[in-house]
Design goal:
The chain is α+β, with helices and mostly antiparallel strands. About 25% of the residues lie in helices and about 30% in strands. The chain contains four helices and four strands. The protein has helices spanning about 5-10, 15-20, 35-40, 70-80, and strands at about 25-30, 50-55, 60-65, 80-85. A hairpin with a 4-residue loop joins strand 2 (about 50-55) and strand 3. It is globular, with a radius of gyration of 15 Å. The two termini are about 30 Å apart.
């Protein structure tokens, strides 16, 4: 078995996969300001057309919103989370 095939041949349940990294990993994703109300309903209105960065828990729960990737990573570190990027 090769490393690239491990995940497809393992017996990991969808439930286990969904909790992978929970409490240890967060991800940073670049978003548009138009996406903010759906992810962060409590956020104030933001001008359209801005590139922002959202920090999410491993399970997809939004944690914070910022205008800098570095600030999102620093926030993850301050909460003892390993930050990964998604595109």
């Amino acid at each position: 078995m090769t490393e690239g095939i491990v995940a497809s041949e393992s017996n990991v349940s969808l439930e286990s996969l969904a909790t992978l990294g929970e409490g240890h990993i967060a991800y940073v994703k670049q978003i548009r300001s138009e996406d903010v109300p759906g992810l962060f309903p409590q956020a104030p209105q933001i001008a359209p057309g801005l590139k922002l960065f959202a920090l999410h828990a491993a399970d997809g729960t939004p944690i914070m919103l910022t205008d800098s990737r570095e600030a999102a990573i620093a926030n993850a570190w301050s909460h003892e989370l390993q930050a990964v990027s998604v595109h």
